[in-house]
User: What shape does this take?
Amino acid sequence: PAFSLFIFTIARDPLRIIILIAGAFFWLVSLLLSSLIWFIAVKASNPQDEQLQKGLLIFGVMFSVLLQEAFRFLYYKLLRKAIEGLVALSEDGCSPISIQQMAYVAGVGFGLMSGAFSMINLLADSLGPGTVGIHGDSQLYFLTSAFMTMVLIFLHTFWGILFFHGCEHRRWWEIAAVVIMHLTVSGLSFCNPLYVGSLVPSYLLMVGAAAWAYLLSGGSAQNLRRFLLCKC
Assistant: This one.
């Protein structure tokens, strides 16, 4: 899905490509910092204490989510400054890209890098040793992981739109809603290997976030109906 979003909505505009790459870089830096803190915490703790290690894993996931959203806010501030600079340099006093478009492209950048790392981890697990499900575990691990990666890519795109809209209009409850949704989806991963318990709620949240982002972007039921009916 990230590749399709890139090809059809971003690839033709050099400015959007720059914003996409910068967004992916911000997500990558947030992952690096959260991984470093989690690694230090694990090394400083007792590796034989399984309960403690599980608690550290939960802490690492939650901290990573909060750090990602903090970097999303920093990226918004950076893009806001960039818009002011573009307006100052333009002849007509208008920015060549709107904050809504920046929010979408930045969200795709976050989702693209998130999905890339999810797939890398998945491919690393597929190298072995052993066979999936050989000890009676679910054989749907790779399939459900692919679906979870897809939903995270779309969610990051929608979260980018919601988050930037909240920052732009000082609606802090929208920002809080994004953080809560992100924490919820990440927390649902601990339901695995009960994949229904993680996939179904995640996709329901994705549908809700998609509808919300669509409305905030100026969409309407009439426009959606005309699009589905292929009417101009």
